[in-house]
Design a protein that fits this description.
By secondary structure, the protein is of the alpha+beta class. Helix content is 23%, strand content 33%. The chain contains one helix and four strands. The strands form two sheets. The protein has a two-stranded antiparallel sheet with strand order 1-2. The chain has a two-stranded antiparallel sheet with strand order 3-4.
């Protein structure tokens, strides 16, 4: 999600990359670039991409 002209936009390509890395199918992000915060039931709450 990013902000453009006072609107928030969801980048579908970025979401697919995150989901693919989380499933172990790819490695788009280096160590330390993708941080995932989960709740006590292992549901993803936030995906934080520092260097994307």
């Amino acid at each position: 999600m990013y902000q453009s002209d006072m609107l928030f936009v969801i980048d579908g390509n970025l979401i697919n990359k995150i989901l693919s890395d989380l499933s172990g199918a790819t490695n788009y992000f280096d160590n330390g670039e993708l941080r995932v915060y989960i709740d006590e039931n292992y549901n993803v709450i936030v995906a934080d991409i520092r260097a994307y």
